[in-house]
Design goal:
Pfam families: DUF4190 (PF13828). 45% of the residues lie in helices and 3% in strands. The termini are far apart. By secondary structure, it is mainly α.
């Protein structure tokens, strides 16, 4: 009697370990199936996306600039952000988050612009850079 273990059972689908099952055996193609389809020269990555909407990118950029330095740009960011959101909804392009962020930043920049105008009109803020607290 030998102390060796019995050989392992054959793999599912026939054949032996390390070799593919014979064609037509069990209806399974060799090695688990064909490779995923190729789109645009990139195998296995699915269908190409439509890309980001350019209005969404500009809405975000102008919203940031409007918030940081030039509040009137917030108005343009609001218009572009809303336009980009409607285009993205109909075309399926990417950039919905950028459009929404640009729209929101544009609103915040517009609020700061209104506060600045009120401050200048009431004399609380003047062009000298000093804040007048007394009337």
């Amino acid at each position: 009697m030998s102390n060796q273990a019995p050989p392992p059972p054959p793999p599912p689908g026939g054949g032996s370990y390390g070799t593919p099952p014979p064609p037509g055996d069990g209806g399974q193609p060799p090695y688990g199936g064909p490779p995923p389809p190729s789109y645009g020269g990139q195998p296995g990555y699915g269908a190409p996306s439509a890309g980001n909407n350019s209005k969404a990118v500009w809405a975000l950029v102008l919203g940031i600039l409007g918030l940081l330095c030039c509040s009137p740009l917030g108005i343009v960011a609001i218009i572009l952000g809303r336009s980009a959101q409607s285009e993205i909804a109909t075309s399926g392009q990417g950039g919905a988050g950028m459009a929404k962020a640009g729209f929101i930043l544009g609103i915040i920049a517009l609020v700061f612009l209104v506060l600045q105008i009120i401050g200048f009109a009431t004399g609380v803020i003047d062009f000298s850079g000093d804040v007048n607290t007394s009337g």
